[in-house]
Amino acid sequence: MRSAVELLRELNLVDESPGIEAKRASEAGKSLLETVIAFANEPGLGGGYLLLGVERFASTGKTQYRAVGVTHPDKLQADLASQCATMLNISLRPQVRVDDVEGQTVLVVFVPEVATADKPVYLQATGLPRGAFRRIGTTDQRCTDDDLWALRQVDEPQPGFDAKVVDDCDIEELDPAAIAEYRRLRTLVNPQADELSYPDEELLEALLAARRIKGELKPTVAGVLLFGKPLTLRRLFTTAEVSYVRVVGTEWVADPERRFAATLDVRKAALLTFRQIAAAIEDDLPKGFYLPPDSMQSLQEPLVPRKAFREALANAISHRSYRFNQPTIVVRYSDRIEFINTGYSLKPVSELGRAGPAQRNPILASVFRDVEIAEAKGSGIRTIRRVCEDYGCPPPEFISDRQSGTFTTILRLPVIEGKAAEVEKPQGGDSAGPSHQHEPDSHQLLGDPLATLPFELATLLATLKGRVPSQALRSGILSLCAWHALTADELATLLQRDRHYLRNKHLIPMVRDGELALRFPENPNHPRQAYTLRSELSRG
């Protein structure tokens, strides 16, 4: 057990931490007991230390702690021990020591973490969930229903929230179109799946979207969310909708007249909502040119990987908390997409992407996995990270906010400008140029207008890979610039050459010789400088 001097030294170095809290503590009150409960409950913390008889003060702009002592240490110990033994659902036996710090009596109380089988610890008079507390950062937070399962480190047992029968709903209130959409998607994944041969009512039972109560088939919460008609959803789950918001610029604007460029509110069965919102996101994203390896056909791809934004949307729908009255929101800024859903992460953010039992809506999530809208259990976050890395996009961000009760996924558009290929130095003839910069992978994307690269130019690019004669490369440059004015970065990526090598050995000499012209001849260093044919420049 650590000493008061050691703990006080740590406090003055790093301030309070999840495992240490200092209190003046003139008596054993409510605040003290809440911290004891939080230390006992928090998974993986291993318990925590209370330092009693210590005062917090500001010194030269920095928070410091000093010993001020407790007046009646024996009474404080006795009261705390009594409360831990009688006021909680299980008896706790914290370890207590009395230390002298600079002539002041300070109590050190260590509360060990209890076994998972004994969690949650809570105030008997208050009950669950509000009588239980967790240690989140340096604060003691009241538990929610979701926290109780996280403390036990298990999924909510069946029937959990999404498996509960909705009494005020009949099977006729489920949408046949949504059931048909499930059959369509499931057939694409596994045409031989047993449930596809079932009639609709048996299919719903197999998916736990409906359960028989006294012989009558009744929809479950998951059934209504997955297959409910719009009016049914409006009646039973008012905010079970997804709003897609297009914001001008990179910041949320308070002025309601200038805030949104467009909005789309969808309240439908979850599978139909997913399809409509995913299509809206893809339609709205800028497309890029993508030339697959060993292919002569160019493709169009969104600048944010399709797999990443679909997985983020699937997570926002299937893992949100439907106990709270707030819709799921997808906000498209000019430089990023944010997916915001109610319900903070049941796992610490540092553990996201690891497989483990932490699902808020297991039936809903299972159906999304069955049709391969979402990844296998526990791997969705890992997939988003991997796909963004593969496509050269900035790393995704995941923000879990207990205070607001929300979870946010942020996907940023890639910054293409200035990237060029890394290739080997030429050994005679004209190869890819010296290796000064990294090579974008085959998914590297360029913004419009390169998305419309004609087939004949894609075919030409396939012939210019590797070492080719200088004249052939320059002929290719002329063909590309005849089609459209292109920057050095765009040409370097299309031709898989180093930008500086291409500019110094080919582009500048071709401008000097009159084969190419600058788009902004009066300013050679213009940030949007591009190369075109002289004839094209004179016409433009």
UniProtKB/TrEMBL annotation:
Record region (Disordered): 423-446
InterPro entries, alphabetized: RecG_C_sf, Schlafen_AlbA_2_dom, Schlafen_AlbA_2_dom_sf
What positions does the domain Schlafen AlbA-2 occupy?
Answer: 16-143
The molecule here is called DNA binding domain-containing protein
